[in-house]
Design goal:
CATH topology of one domain: Tumour Suppressor Smad4
Largest sheet: 6 strands, antiparallel
Number of strands: 11
Helix content: 25-40%
CATH class of one domain: Mainly Beta
Strand content: 25-35%
Radius of gyration: 24 Å
Number of helices: 2
Length: 192
């Protein structure tokens, strides 16, 4: 579980437990009732799916923002700031880690003197986003298996994203060169 802490607005300082699903708004039937006139009766819903949390705008008049970005639905990360009406709230939770017993097994790489190919398979509900725990935020990062695993996935995802961009640039360049070569061959066929 986690907490929803109201950081600004009429209900500043209030904390609410983060549940599997909860509606936020002005109506008394909401799990989190706000004293905010800019909030709709049923403004947004925060819910858990596949081990992580999401926020959805329930067709509110003033919309929902996550970290200053307007959204209709968004996946939440620990420490995200959500705006409902004129009320800012911080969402804190510990993400679930995949069960290691269900992870795909791979045979050890043969000793060829080359770096083994790395395959990243994300289990359902697992995000490779960088995760900062409270101990990391204070500069006291732990070397436990959980922290190391999460940090490793973050740099690997960034590295793979850069390779993907490079691959697209190389593919585009190759297609341009191929088109130029075909054009030149057509020119030679016509001229001579």
């Amino acid at each position: 579980m986690g907490t929803i802490t109201i950081t600004s607005g009429p209900d500043t300082g209030k904390e609410h437990p983060l549940a599997e699903s909860q509606v936020i708004g002005r109506a008394g039937r909401c799990a989190i009732t706000l004293n905010d006139t800019r909030a709709s009766r049923e403004h947004a819903r925060i819910y858990k799916s596949r081990g992580t949390y999401f926020v959805t705008d329930l067709n509110s008049k003033n919309g929902v923002q996550v970290n200053d970005q307007p959204i209709s639905k968004a996946q939440l990360s620990p420490g995200d700031r959500v705006l409902v009406g004129e009320t800012w709230m911080r969402i804190d939770f510990e993400p679930e880690l995949p069960d290691a017993s269900n992870a795909p097994r791979q045979a050890p790489a043969a000793s060829t003197g080359r770096t083994p190919e790395i395959q990243l398979r994300a289990a359902s509900g697992v995000s490779a986003d960088p995760i900062r725990t409270r101990s990391h935020a204070r500069g006291k990062g732990s070397r436990s298996g959980r922290s190391v695993t999460r940090t490793s996935l973050a740099w690997l995802r960034t590295d793979l994203a850069q390779v993907s961009g490079l691959y697209r640039a190389m593919l585009t360049s190759g297609l341009v060169l191929l088109a130029g070569g075909l054009g030149y061959l057509a020119y030679l066929a016509v001229v001579g």
